[in-house]
Specification:
Strand order of the largest sheet of chain A: 1-2
Order of helices and strands of chain A: HHHHHHHHHEEHH
Helix content of chain A: 55-70%
Distance between the termini of chain B: 93 Å
Strand content of chain A: under 5%
Structural class of chain B: alpha+beta
Strand content of chain B: 15-25%
Distance between the termini of chain A: 58 Å
CATH architecture of the domain at 118-234 in chain B: 3-layer Sandwich
Shape of chain B: elongated
Largest interface: A-B, 27 and 19 residues
Number of strands of chain A: 2
CATH architecture of chain A: Up-down Bundle
Number of helices of chain B: 4
CATH class of the domain at 118-234 in chain B: Mainly Beta
Structural class of chain A: mainly alpha
Number of helices of chain A: 11
Oligomer: heterodimer
Largest sheet of chain B: 7 strands, antiparallel
Chain lengths: 266, 236
């Protein structure tokens, strides 16, 4: 009786697994032997970034905390929820705040915005914890020193993603937080009006670095936080920074593999 | 990553502490590692207790009998495996179903900002005979026309591919800018690729005596629906 139901399913399954489409996707059969496991990893563009083999002790949860993996997972969650938010959010002074309110009240699952926001907070925390773990286990030492450097850049990108996302709700908190935050750019050496050595860049009595062309202006697109700032931060938040982070993450994972997999306990 | 003897740098002792013996006892290991980068890269940060392949082989037959839990085609699935698979896949399926449903639902907002499909357009006497009223075109995509006998409302959607024609007063015709379809003031097509006349929308009188236009009801000429009294408002 049960077989009468299961046999067509088995038949369909066999037909599917015997097809050319299946063979094109799963090129090396089931990963039941060590050789096949390695082949499956190596012939997959996503998996091949990951170490083919890791030592059991090296991937123990209490050794790695899985913090890098959780961070990557959160990045994927943020990319996906961010994409959904982009369907409703318009980065203009006129609409930005109203769209954020709409996202919570007029759209099913007003939780989507909260998922994005809390996910972002969580990602900052997990990135720090990942860094702490790598430091405490000495995994930053050669030959992994280059990957540590990439990780530091990824940390900065994560913080910048948080910073640029902070402005997008366009409420009072956002505007004044970015006003305060971007004021720091004034103190950039050479490139900020109030930074060290900037005052020495003069042509006769004309200051070459002024409020209209310094690093802060480049960040804001204006002399104060306004429409150009919102658009700049939006583009950076949705395209520029995630793209940079994604590329560096690929390098980061690739280097883990090239440097001999996840480091073992010291 | 278990190290095979093949991948070990030549000369390095199997259990050597990395960074010590490898540099050949150089007085300054840092300088040596900087000079010989490729060698330094191949160093392993931790010693291995046992390299793969050196695991002592058990004599054949000495393997302890253990129930093999790998599934084979046609064999019965053990109760334990079945439970684990059923619970696991059920939870996965449920999670995916909930996730995809909610994401799908997210794309359909509870509030729309587009104008309603029915609206009042003023009193019938406000419309002059033989004039095409274009006031409602932009917001509601409707022209209101009055002739000697009736008031009717035409949808502004071209019956060719859905562009919006313009009312050309000088030439007394609706002309579509996309592919050149032309319609008389009645909505009947006479030039260009449009295959059929413009559609009428429902016209009636609201309780306050104003014209009530309902875009949700459409009347096609070619289907004989323009005879329907709901498709126009008689003015006699």
């Amino acid at each position: 009786m049960l077989n009468r139901i299961l046999d067509p399913i088995r038949g369909a399954w066999k037909e599917a697994t015997d097809s050319q489409v299946w063979a094109s996707i799963f090129r090396h059969g089931k990963p039941v032997s060590n050789r096949n496991r390695a082949l499956v990893m190596m012939s997959n563009v996503f998996l091949h970034l990951h170490p083919v083999k890791s030592r059991k002790a090296g991937i123990k949860l209490r050794y790695t905390w899985c913090m890098g993996g959780i961070t990557f997972f959160l990045f994927l969650v943020l990319t996906f929820t961010g994409l959904l938010l982009m369907f409703y959010y318009r980065p203009t002074v006129e609409y930005a705040y109203a769209d954020i309110v709409d996202l919570q009240e007029h759209v099913p699952l007003g939780i989507m915005r909260e998922l994005h926001r809390w996910g972002a907070h969580a990602m900052v925390i997990t990135v720090w914890l990942h860094m702490l773990r790598v430091f405490m286990t000495g995994s930053y030492k050669p030959p992994r020193e280059f990957n540590w450097a990439i990780g530091v850049v990824l940390l900065v990108l994560t913080l910048l993603l948080s910073f640029t996302g902070y402005l997008l709700p366009w409420d009072q908190l956002a505007i004044w937080a970015i006003t305060v935050g971007s004021n720091m750019a004034r103190a950039t050496p050479l490139l900020g009006t109030e930074g060290p050595l900037s005052a020495s860049l003069t042509l006769g009595d004309i200051a070459l670095v002024n409020a209209g062309n310094d690093a802060r202006f480049a960040l804001l697109g204006a002399q104060s936080v306004g429409q150009p700032t919102l658009l700049r931060f939006y583009v950076l938040h949705c395209v520029g920074l995630p793209l940079g982070a994604a590329v560096l993450m690929a390098v980061h994972f690739w280097r883990v593999r090239k440097d001999g997999g996840i480091s073992g306990p010291m | 990553m278990p190290e095979t003897p093949r991948s070990r740098p030549p000369g390095a002792a199997p259990k050597a502490r990395p960074g010590k013996a490898q540099e050949g006892g150089a007085a300054n290991p840092k300088a040596a590692s900087a000079a010989k980068k490729p060698t330094a890269r191949r160093r392993r940060p931790t010693p291995r207790r046992r390299a793969a392949g050196t695991r002592p082989k058990r004599p054949a037959g000495a393997r302890p009998k253990r129930p093999v839990r790998r599934r084979k085609a046609g064999k019965k699935v053990s109760r334990r495996d079945f439970t684990a698979l059923a619970v696991g896949w059920s939870m996965f399926t449920a999670a995916m179903a909930v996730g995809l449903t909610t994401v799908g639902r997210f794309l359909f907002p509870n509030v729309l900002t587009e104008p309603p499909s029915s609206f009042t357009a003023g009193f019938p006497d406000d419309f002059a005979i033989g004039v095409v009223d274009t006031r409602f075109k932009e917001r509601y995509q409707v022209w209101v026309v009055r002739d000697e006998e009736k008031i009717y409302a035409l949808s502004t959607i071209c019956t060719h591919l859905g562009c919006t024609p313009n009312w050309l007063e000088a030439e007394s015709k609706f002309k579509c800018p996309c592919h050149g379809s032309g319609f008389y003031i009645t909505g009947i097509n006479f030039e260009g690729p449009a295959p059929r006349p413009l559609e009428r929308v429902a016209v009636s009188l609201a309780e306050d005596g104003q014209l009530l236009i309902d875009k949700a009801r459409l009347f096609k000429f070619e289907a004989g629906q323009w005879e329907d009294p709901a498709s126009f408002l008689a003015m006699t």
